[in-house]
Structure formats: structure tokens, C-alpha cells
Amino acid sequence: MKNNLLVSIFILMSSMSFSQETFKGMIMDKNNPKDNLGVYGASVYWLNTNVGVTTNEKGWFTIPYKSNYKKLVVSFVGYKTDTITINNLKPIHHFITESNTLKEVSVNAKKSATQKSYLQAQNLVTINSEELLKAACCNLSESFETNPSIDVNFSDALTGTKQIQMLGLTSPYLLITQENIPSIRGAAQAFGLTFTPGTWVESIQITKGAGSVINGFESISGQINAELVKPSRDHKFFLNAYGALGGRLELNTHFNQKVSDKWQTGIYVHGNHRGEKFDKNNDGFLDNPLSKQINVMNRWQYTDAEKGWVSFINFHYLDDDKQVGQIGFNPDTDKGSTTIWGSEIKSKRFETSAKLGYVFPDLPFQSMGLQAAYSNHKQDSYFGLREYDIEHQSFYSNFLFNSIIGDTRHKFKTGLSFTYDKYDEMVKTTPQVNDYNRNETSVGAFFEYAYDNSDDISVTAGIRVDNHNLLGTFLTPRLHVRYSPWEKGVFRTSVGRGKRSANIFAENQQLFASSRQINIGNANGKIYGLDPEVAWNYGVSFLQGYKLFGRKGDVTFDFYRTNFDNQVVVDWENPQEISFYNLDGKSVANSFQVELNQNIIPFFNTRFSYKYYDVNTDFKSGNAAKALQAKHRFFANVSYETSKQENDAHWKFDVTYNWIGKQRLPNTSQNPIQYQLSEYSNSYNLLNAQITKVFSKKFEIYAGAENITNYKQKNPILASDDPFGSSFDTTIVYAPIFGSNFYTGLRFKID
Amino acid sequence: MKKLVLVITVLFLSVSMSAQKKKKNAKVSFDVDGVCMMCKNRIEKAALNSKGVKYALWNVKTHQLNLIIDERKTDAATVQQNIANVGHDTDAFKAPKEVYDNLHGCCKYRDEEIQNDHKKEKQ
């Protein structure tokens, strides 16, 4: 230590005495390249020395130079610290980027937290970490509340799990990937979104419609990709604590460490706990589950920029326990009881994945990548006297090669993929016990061609062929076209096919917390006796950016239609039964959305959206609109930030409003009169608000309220007074159960 | 016999070596005059429109154009000519006057005033 000090003093002195030579340059803001404004007050110093200066009002600096100084470090509050290699004395112009900036899409004065792409063929929306902070709690399922493209619904009256929908279809019809590896599928479908803590998510990309063929054939209405925090970009230490009056406590810690020149690692630990019992609606049942979760991830990142190698290795372990049911239920003594109803859901998941990417050093347009992932998901659960256990092991691998045809306007991606899924399920509905085991293997090859004339037209055309042991051999074509006839105006169209095997129990787990008899229509199919689901999705959209009184805004019109060739129909129309059968007739989902984003004054942004859904299916009892689906929805979000002080201190305000129109309720006319519901639910309003006070780069606190108007569904549980009777049903949920909730939390970061 | 094989092999190698001189992915870079992002788009487009150019990146600040070309199909001079034809000067080729005159006002890089305007913007 003393030595180091001495050396640095010596270097400092020597640099002072011999500093005839100077090095000049200018530091600019990457977000403002058009006006090329210099950054005032950025600090510039030579790596491993004490030789440093700050930039002047115009962004210029002059720093003493010696030939052994090679690496120049540029840092500025709120921006990424850059290290530049200096080989000669030519003045440099260096652009710095805001620390939360991800893939640059557009060049704006203030980058908005949600970015719509003007350039990509696909209808893509990127949500970055700033937007994710608007809904402070707590996991991936709750990350979409400020985004109108995705609707958040409630899956059942017991667990309060939030279910997402896009284009009027529930999440099983979406491909949800984590860093482009399919993650929430199979056994993880019901609760998987709650198994990725919000602080682990760096950004989310939402593609509406068909999507790309690269990640498989399963997606039908869209794709959601979550990029996780990376050891190289995340804070060295990060702490987030959250507490809500509803009894929910959460803690997140991140540790990131540079191990060597090329290796970096991060450990991310999440825990949440809810131990307090609430029964605000006096139905004798817990309004929220008692729960605890431990969630640990370890990431390793390898980067060799010179040779072009990049690699990630991940390990993730999760243990999640939930207890729901009647207030007095004690699992130790009451499990299996026929007088007091309770339920426990225990999930354990282990997953590991590795990625290896190589960019040809001399050919910037050519690269290849290999991904491999393994997961084991185990859920043991009982619901009153019913039991449901599932173990799902999955292996996924994908090899991808990117290059060009002729020149960089014609790009292609091609590769091979292999997946293996092993399901072991046990369904016990006394006195019956059924085991369902199945293995799925598929081998596929894909080719995707992308044309972009870097001006007004881009096209992505992809096709894949897969051989699957249960779905057969089939083609999956997908096409996206973008045409931009005038400035900031973009027309898009897409068409694509998707095919999947429905995991009827895992995807509709709420059925177990009811007295409904399970009927599976046997059609001699290979998946529970049923056939695979096949659908085509078509979409058109138009986006126009504009300036109104000098303020930026954009408006989007989307229309999408999903047509099922075959669907595994989930029929809730008989209150004593749930039936699964192959579609006989038609099933379509139409969705129309108009969205308006408008900046009012600097740092004051508004977003409005109206959505119309027409989702209907031919049930055995006739064609009917999808139950628990509002035809009309309205969304508004207003956010405001005060200007940042020198130490980064500022306030952030965010308010989100949702109006959810009336929803058709499943038919309950066969129930005894006291357990019958009306044909439609009432429409209702939801209001959420959050305030964040940033004290410095290091520390911030936030407080917020959910469902401020305290709207609650009356009697969310049918026959809650007779849970072992034939009308007991917790599945008909169209509104919040808990009412208003207030929370607060803090974030602490060290870089 | 053995010697003959060796000789043929060596011959063959040397032939293929000389053939390799015309590289499939040759890196080429030269300066192209221009001032703004519109110029950048025009320059890169003209470069990519030349047969055999695979990759083009022009730097607004340094005015350097980096190319990856297939030397069997084209050479730097051809690309420079094509770029000059759309209005941008290189060391070897000057843009025809009528093409230059038709450039957008922002792109008149020969005009010192315009150059200074862009420099001012930078500062």
C-alpha cells in the first residue's frame, strides 16, 4: 500500500515536471449527437495515475500526456465510465452514454423509458430499467403494469398470481424467454413469471404478433424477452428492500465482482416473505397467500473483445412455498381434513445455462452463437382433497450463425435447435389418481433472411422445419415487413404460424381449487388424448411520430388477429365441470389497440391507450366470447421527473390508471341460486401511484399505493361457506381481491 | 516420384497463395469528404451499391470510410468513383459539379461556411 502510494506520488510528480506534451479532446453526449453539445464537468484521467482534469463548458479538455499513458478514463455522473486506448496525439471526440442506456433505437433529447422501434421489421417495444422502476414491485409478472401492450389479469382467488395476456390470449400462447432461452413454459407456466425478481431484469423486449423463428415454433401471439442484469454492467453492490402493508416483504441484493481481465461474476439473492393473515372480505379465506421464496442466481461473464469471444454461464435455484385456503387452516394438522379447506403449493426449480458467442474479428457482420440450458421444475401441491404434482425436466440447445448475402443490407441467420422435455404429472381427484407422463423431443433447423435498405423498407422472412415426436414434422413460416413512406411514419405487417402442445393441468391449475369435475375429451391424440394447438397470427400496425408545439409524441394503431386451426378448448361453462377438448369449429382472437404517447413539458410524459378485444370460441354449448376477458379497456399513465441536481438528487412521480370494461362470467346457471352469478361483471377502475426520491447516485427511497380507489370483487370465492360442496369455485376472478395496498422501499447502490 | 509430388504440391501451393492475394474479405479504408448524417447515409449507400462491397461504415468526425470488399469483384478505385458519382469527393476522384450542386444545402462540404457551421454545432 505504502509502495503504491509512493509510486503514484512519484508518477504524479514526474508527470508534472515532464508534462510538456498535452493531449486534447472533447466529450459529448451520445444522446445528443445532432447538436453535438459538449459535456461540461466530465472528469478525464489517465488510468492508474492521478493525472486528471475536467472538461470546460464546451466539453473540451486538455490533459498532460506521456507516451506511457495509454488508457484514458472518462467519467461523468449518470453516464457510463469509458476507458479509451490512446495511440497518438490526435484530438479525440468521445461520446459517452447514459448509464442505463441499452440498445440505442432513436436519437432523442431525453430518451424515453419505453422505446418503440421505428427501424425494425417487427413490432417491437423495449422497456428499459427506468420504466421497470415505475412499478416498484416485485417480479416479472408485475413489470408490465405501465405498458398497455400487455394486460395483467388475476388467475384465481387464492394465490393472487398475476397472469399476463397479449392480443387477448393468455401467456401460454406467448413465448417468454430469458436472454433468448425459452424459460416460462411447461410446468413453470402458472407461477413462472413470479420466479424472476424485478431487480434482476435489465430490460424487456415485447414483440407483438408472429415473432422470429429462431427461438422455436411455440409462440403464437407474441414474444417477451427479459434481459437480465449483467455482471459487467450492474452495480458492484445493490440492495433493494420492500415492505407493504399487505404483509409482503422483499429483499434483493446483488454483488458483482471482476475476477480477472476477462471474467466477471455476479451473485443475486432474492427473498420474499408474507406471513400475515388477512381476510378483509370476511369469506373465511386468506385474501393473499402466506408465502416465502428464496431465489439465488450466479452469473459468470467472459469477454475477450480482441478475439471476439463472449460467454455467459448461469446457475439459478429457487424454492417457493405458498399456503392458501381458510384462515384457520394449519398444514401440519389439517392436511387432508374434510372440514377445513387449505392448500399448499411448493415449487423448486434449478436451472443452468451457458452461452458462447463469437464475432469474427475481421468480419463485423459475421458471428455465431451456441446456447444450452437445462432446467428441472418440481411442484408438489394439494388443494383441499385434490393433489397435483408435476416434475418437468427440460433441455434446450440452439446453434446460430449470422452473416450476410452480398452486402450488409441482406443478412441471414441460420441454425439448428434441439429440445427435450420430460413431464411427470400426478393428478389426484379423490378417489381417482391419474399419472400422466410424456416425453417430447424435437429437432429443428431454421433460416431467417432480413433485408434492410437502411431507409424505408425492411423485411424479415423466416422459416423453420421441426421434427417432433408428438407434433410430427412441420413447417413454421413467419414474415414481417416494415415500410416507412414518410418521416417517422411506419407501417408494419406480419403473419406467422405457431404450434404447441397444451399442458392442460399446469396452465389451468386454478381448476384444482374448485369442485369442478375434470373431463378430457378423448380424441386419440398424443397429448392427454388431445391434438396439438395450431394457429396463424396476422397483424398490421401503423406508428407515427410527430411534434406538437415542439413536444414529441407518437401514436400507434395495431390490429391483430389469431385464427386457431386447432385449439385445446378450456370449457368452464358448466359450473360443476371443466372440460378440455379439441376445437370443433372456429376460435379467433381479434385485438385492436390505439396508443398515444405525448411529452407535455420536459420530463412530463403521458401515455394513453384504448384496447378492444373480440375473442370468441365455438364451445360444445355454442359460440361464446372468452370468459373473464374485458372487451374494452382504457389505460393512462402520467409520469413526471424534477430536474436533476448536481449530485443526481431528484423526484419521480408516476400515476397509472386502468379502466376495465365489463367481462362475461362463466355460466353458473346450473348452480343453486345462492351460488349463481350474473352474466357480466361490472366495469371498474384501478389507480396506482408511486413517488421516488433519489437522494444521490447511491441512494433512493420510494413509496406507492396500488388500487387507491380500493376496488374489490365481492365474493371472489363461490360457496366459500361450503368448500367441500359441489359448487365450491375459486376460479371466477375478474377484479382485485385485496383492495388498496401501500408500500415503501429503498435502493442502495455502490459502483 | 516422391520429389515430383513435392514439386507439384509446392507449385500448387504457390499458385493458390497468389490467388489468395485477391482477398474475399479485404479491409479497405480511405477518406471521403462530407459533413453530416445525410452525407453518411448517401456515402454508405453508394458504397454498398457498388458490386462487391459487403460492409461500409463512414465516420462523420474523421471522414474515414471503412469497407470490407471482395477484391475479386471490385477495387477501391471503383468504389471511390461510385461515391464521387453521388456527390462526394475522395482523394482520387472529384464529384461532378452538377451532382455536387444538387446535394442538399446541409451537405455542401466544399463550402467553408457550411463546414464551419457543422464545426460550430460540435462546439
Automatic annotation (TrEMBL), chain A:
Membrane association type: Multi-pass membrane protein
Extent of the signal sequence: 1-19
Q: Does the keyword Signal apply?
A: yes
- Recorded superkingdom: Bacteria
Q: Domain TonB-dependent receptor-like beta-barrel: where?
A: 280-708
User: What is this protein's record name?
Assistant: TonB-dependent receptor
Question: What is one term from the GO cellular component aspect held by the record?
Answer: cell outer membrane
In terms of Pfam families, this protein maps to:
CarbopepD_reg_2, Plug, TonB_dep_Rec_b-barrel
Q: Which residues form the TonB-dependent receptor plug domain?
A: 122-222
Indicate whether Transmembrane appears among the record's keywords. Answer: yes
Q: Which InterPro entries match?
A: Beta-barrel_TonB (IPR000531), Beta-barrel_TonB_sf (IPR036942), CarboxyPept-like_regulatory (IPR008969), Plug_dom (IPR012910), Plug_dom_sf (IPR037066), TonB-dep_rcpt-like (IPR039426)
From TrEMBL, chain B:
- State any single GO MF term: metal ion binding
Its keywords, alphabetically, are: Signal
Report which superkingdom the organism of origin falls in: Bacteria
Instruction: Enumerate the spans annotated as HMA domain.
Output: 21-91
Q: Which residues form the signal peptide?
A: 1-19
Sorted alphabetically, which InterPro entries does this protein's record hold? HMA_dom, HMA_dom_sf
Question: What is the protein named?
Answer: HMA domain-containing protein
Upper lineage is: Bacteria, Pseudomonadati, Bacteroidota, Flavobacteriia, Flavobacteriales
